[in-house]
Amino acid sequence: MLIKSKQPLLESATTPENVYSERRAILKGLGLGGLLLAGPSRAGFFSKEASGPVPAAAKRYPLSYQKAASASPLVPTPENKILTHNNFYEFGTGKTDPFKNSQGLRLEPWTLSVEGEVAKPGTLDVWELINGAQKQGAQLQERIYRMRCVEAWSMVIPWIGIELGQILKQFEPTSKAKYLAFETLYDPQQMPGQQSRRIGGGIDYPYVEGLRMDEAMHPLTILSVGLYGKTLAPQNGAPIRLVVPWKYGFKGIKSIVKIRLVEKMPPTTWNILAAKEYGFYANVNPAVDHPRWSQGSERAITEGGLFSAKRQKTLPFNGYGDEVAGLYSAMNLKKWF
Ligand code: MTE
Questions:
Q1: Which of 39, 78, 267, 313 is most buried (most C-beta within 10 Å)?
Q2: Which residue from 58, 45, 65, 51 is spatially nearest to 103, judged by alpha carbons?
Q3: Domain limits at 117?
Q4: Does residue 130 lie within any of the structural domains?
Q5: Is 278's C-beta closer than 6 angstroms to any atom of ligand 1?
Q6: Inside any domain, residue 120
Q7: Which residues, at least 6 apart from 37, have a Cβ–Cβ distance to it below 8 Å?
Q8: Closest ligand 1 atom, CA of 85?
């Protein structure tokens, strides 16, 4: 077992109905739905077939937000897949590890500091940001985006968030601010992958990511605080994570605590680990293969397992070329992959 969980192990007779059904959907996603049928008298026990204890899902709060335009042709991936097929190496490298190991992550309070090349450096109370944005009505928006992982699988996720540019403006970036350096929480006590290189996939933590200033200010770039109508689950990067839909998923840094505006291109986790395989820009590009696999197509995750998923063509800039190709018109994208 990777982590000593403080959470109850499975159902108890006192579990409220809505939590019970949500957990049932998640367990189904893990292929463990049958475990619930054993009934409350067996609460906390697992059959040998189970891959390990399944924790109680962390609470997610309903959000009020502005709905996406109904014209979106994208069909969202089922919620239980989005909640159980994850990459969050701080909680282990297996796809179900983040769900299994992150439910006890302390999300309150959570602050995000914005510093560096800004006239007004400061700290955001993330829960105040979420509540304030809801009260003001229009600011929390649903964005139904494609998500393309560099590992050649994809989902469609109904995010809820705020444009990053709107947030940055409040801190008044200076003319020297050319890039942004993002940082995930560093807390080895809570994140088993940060205690051990084996569990954490050999990464030097904290996980760091970066964007160029114009990418950060682009209206498609959001800080997400929710999905499927509720606040984020820990495994998806609660309480606040980056979403840049035209880039490979690894740019979408989770559980952010710091954004530093800087003059020079900052180091980024996957580029540090393997510079020939993962570039700083990481724009989805079917014309530039990963050295070890093709990026020409992807498995679109719907119901069922990863390998029964339908293959579809990968689109340049993940289908957002009309909106963002202009940001890179002067660049050789084979060199700046
Ligand atoms: N952020 C942190 N801090 N740690 C990670 O391991 N994985 C990245 C990205 N953000 C990762 C991270 C990768 S590789 C992907 S594909 C996406 O998160 C996955 O997001 P999801 O699990 O919400 O689908």
A1: 78
A2: 58
A3: 100-274
A4: yes
A5: no
A6: yes
A7: none
A8: 22
